[in-house]
């Protein structure tokens, strides 16, 4: 499941992860640490929603 | 205009754009705007932001009263958008600066605006400081107020906060300070600016304001990049207003916007408005033909309810409504009550489509959705009036919370 940032629209794709933010490819959104931030706008994890 | 010394050795060197009527190509700026930039004279000479490209000659003329460009050591780029960094390329060429300070996201994006590979770009971490002699400049990341690269620059010695787009207003004036003009007028322009530029990032605004409150910075001057500046007690006023805007608390007000071909939808909207007014709700009734989409958004922003109307046209809605809805939905106003009405000649998809827009905007939708074939008759208009009464009850329940 991909997750979209409700602030800037950046999409978290588990297959790609967020290597710059220390999230390895293959990491499920649920397994990302709570203090992780959107790499584009700095939004918190709670600002993300499942992509429809 | 000539430079204005705002603190000893710190000068406003902005440009007043008296004729700007279309801010950034999408929002109305009926009172023009300003592009504020600043020059700090210290052991290091610092330029804080620039102005839009078309204002280059006025900017250089203003700066010439204070220094020669080649004397400038540092350039601070609080935001890369072309109304603030429009003269950056020219200034880098003229100043040959020792350093150009940008935020982390500014560092990632600067090369997508400029051929900056040979520029002395210095990416600052949040909270990083640089000494410029008697003064210090401290940089704070303020992502999404309103682009990812935005940052604030703070000078503790002068208690000065340069805030780029945050707290801005589209006002062209010879005055430079909020306390020189009507505060009510300034608040109205701040709200218009916020509604049309900052609304989607309201949750970030709240977090940023909370973070800054926690820092306990001593601030007695807030200098945004557009419009008037705040000093003394007005700094608290600016912060309070932004927290109020960011919370998007609805007023006892409904905005009804619509398009119409032969006045059927217009009459239906008018009947809904009458129902609302009969229950003591303040209404703004706005034809999309008579009102720019950004003026509609400015009214939607603090309304508890939006009522939208369009006739069916080519199995869809009228293009003026599509424009207004695309714009308003894009700004993601939160927590609205929504209702839709419309007329039709044969197929009648309008209300279904309008309703889909309201759903996408996350509105609490009030039923019934009312459609009229060709012309609304007396019963249909009574139904519209009653819809207004029903919406009014929902508004009262919402604003009472």
Strand order of the largest sheet of chain B: 1-2-7-8-9-10-11
Average pLDDT over all residues of chain B: 97
Structural class of chain A: mainly beta
Strand content of chain B: 15-25%
Low-confidence segments of chain A: none
Number of H/I helices of chain B: 12
Shape of chain A: globular
Silhouette of chain B: elongated
Global structural class of chain B:
alpha/beta
Distance between the termini of chain B: 49 Å
Largest interface: A-B, 9 and 10 residues
Count, helices of chain A: 0
Strands of chain B, total number: 25
Q: Which band does the percent of strand residues of chain A land in?
A: 15-25%
Percent helix among the residues of chain B? Answer: 25-40%
Low-confidence stretches of chain B: none
List keywords for this structure.
heterodimer, A: 52 residues, mainly beta, three-stranded antiparallel β-sheet, B: 401 residues, alpha/beta, seven-stranded mixed β-sheet, 36% helix, 25% strand
Structure overview:
- The complex is a heterodimer of chains A (52) and B (401).
- Chain A is an all-beta fold.
- Chain A contains no helices and 3 strands.
- Chain A has strands at 3-5, 11-12, 48-50.
- Chain A has a 3-stranded antiparallel sheet, with no helix packed on it.
- In chain A, strand 1 and strand 2 form a beta hairpin.
- The relative contact order of chain A is 0.35.
- In chain B, helix 6 (202-215) packs antiparallel against helix 7 (234-247), helix 8 (264-278) packs across helix 12 and helix 9 packs across helix 10.
- Chain B has helices at 56-64, 82-85, 88-95, 104-113, 183-198, 202-215, 234-247, 264-278, 293-301, 319-330, 350-360, 378-400; strands at 4-7, 10-12, 15-17, 22-23, 27-28, 33-35, 38-41, 45-48, 74-76, 99-102, 121-123, 129-131, 136-141, 151-155, 160-164, 221-224, 230-231, 251-258, 282-287, 303-309, 312-313, 316-317, 337-344, 364-365, 370-373.
- Chain B contains 12 helices and 25 strands.
- Chain B has a 7-stranded mixed sheet with strand order 1-2-7-8-9-10-11. A 6-stranded mixed sheet of chain B has the order 12-13-14-15-16-17, with helices on one face. In chain B, strands 18, 19, 20, 23, 24 and 25 form a 6-stranded parallel sheet that branches.
- In chain B, 36% of the residues lie in helices and 25% in strands.
- Chain B is α/β, with parallel strands linked by helices.
- At the A-B interface, loops of A face helix 6 of B.
């Amino acid at each position: 499941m991909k997750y979209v940032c409700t602030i800037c629209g950046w999409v978290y794709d588990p297959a790609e992860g967020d290597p710059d933010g220390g999230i390895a490819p293959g990491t499920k959104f649920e397994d990302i640490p709570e203090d992780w931030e959107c790499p584009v706008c700095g939004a918190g994890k709670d600002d993300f929603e499942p992509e429809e | 205009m000539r430079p204005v010394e705002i603190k000893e050795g710190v000068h406003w060197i902005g440009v007043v754009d008296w004729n700007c009527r279309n801010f950034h190509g999408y929002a109305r700026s009926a009172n023009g705007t300003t592009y504020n930039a600043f020059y700090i004279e210290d052991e290091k000479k610092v330029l804080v932001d620039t102005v839009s490209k078309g204002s280059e000659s006025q900017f250089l003329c203003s700066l010439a009263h204070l220094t020669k460009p080649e004397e400038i050591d540092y350039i601070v780029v609080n935001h890369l958008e072309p109304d603030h960094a429009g003269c950056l390329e020219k200034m880098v060429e003229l100043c040959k600066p020792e350093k150009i300070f940008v935020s982390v996201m500014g560092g990632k994006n600067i090369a997508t605006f400029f051929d900056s590979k040979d520029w002395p770009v210095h990416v600052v971490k949040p909270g990083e400081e640089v000494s410029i002699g008697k003064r210090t400049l401290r940089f704070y990341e303020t992502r999404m107020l309103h682009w990812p690269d935005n940052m604030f620059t703070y000078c503790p010695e002068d208690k000065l906060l340069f805030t780029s787009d945050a707290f801005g207003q589209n006002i062209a004036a010879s005055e430079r300070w909020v306390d020189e003009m009507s505060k009510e007028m300034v608040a109205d322009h701040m709200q218009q600016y916020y509604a049309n530029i900052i609304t989607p990032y309201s949750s970030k605004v709240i977090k940023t304001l909370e973070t800054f409150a926690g820092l306990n910075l001593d601030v007695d001057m807030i200098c945004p990049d557009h419009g008037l500046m705040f000093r003394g007690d007005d700094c608290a006023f600016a912060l309070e207003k932004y927290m109020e805007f960011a919370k998007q608390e609805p007023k006892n007000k409904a905005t009804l916007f619509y398009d119409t071909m032969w006045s059927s939808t217009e009459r239906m909207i008018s009947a809904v408005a009458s129902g609302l007014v009969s229950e003591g709700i303040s209404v703004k009734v706005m034809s999309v033909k008579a009102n720019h989409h950004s003026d509609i958004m400015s009214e939607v922003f603090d309304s508890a309810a939006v009522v939208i109307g369009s006739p069916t046209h080519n199995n869809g809605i009228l293009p003026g409504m599509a424009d207004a809805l695309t714009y308003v939905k894009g700004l993601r106003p939160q927590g609205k009550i929504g209702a839709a009405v419309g007329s039709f000649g044969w197929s009648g998809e309008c209300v279904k489509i309008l309703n889909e827009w309201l759903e996408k905007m996350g509105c609490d939708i009030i039923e019934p959705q009312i459609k009229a074939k060709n012309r609304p008759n007396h019963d249909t208009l009574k139904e519209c009036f009653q819809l207004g009464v029903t919406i009014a009850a929902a508004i009262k329940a919402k604003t009472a919370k």
